[in-house]
Amino acid sequence: MGELPNCPQCGSEYTYEDGDLYICPECSHEWGKHAAGEESEQKRVVRDAYGNVLQDGDAVTVIKDLKVKGSSLVVKVGTKVKNIRIVEGDHDIDCKIDGIGAMQLKSEFVKKA
């Protein structure tokens, strides 16, 4: 039996084959055998609230007041954030906001500046 690839989503080594698919029992991610080598080359496309593609280093503007969890601070509408980084996860923008510090934002609450 050949060596099976680790899950590209969670990194689990307990993947198994089912027809033309690899399946991860831990996170239920399924991917095709033909995509196993291409998975690392594919880059996730992150779009802002208006459908513009965001990339590392872009500047964005916040379009909604956002409460900062665990504090009384609020990121106000119109706050400009420079030099963003695209990361994996629900909050897909990693950035630093003046006066608040490092935080993560959801792309649905920003527009490309």
TrEMBL record:
Domain named Protein YjdM C-terminal is located at 46-113
**InterPro entries, sorted:** YjdM (IPR004624), YjdM_C (IPR013988), YjdM_N (IPR013987)
Domain (Protein YjdM N-terminal) spans: 3-31
Fetch the SUPFAM superfamilies from UniProt. Answer: Prokaryotic SH3-related domain (SSF82057), Zinc beta-ribbon (SSF57783)
| Pfam families membership | YjdM, Zn_Ribbon_YjdM
Instruction: Name the domain of life this protein comes from.
Output: Bacteria
The UniProt family comment states: Belongs to the YjdM family.
- According to UniProt, the name of this protein is Zinc ribbon domain-containing protein YjdM
Q: Which organism is it from?
A: Crenobacter oryzisoli
Taxonomy of the source species: Bacteria, Pseudomonadati, Pseudomonadota, Betaproteobacteria, Neisseriales
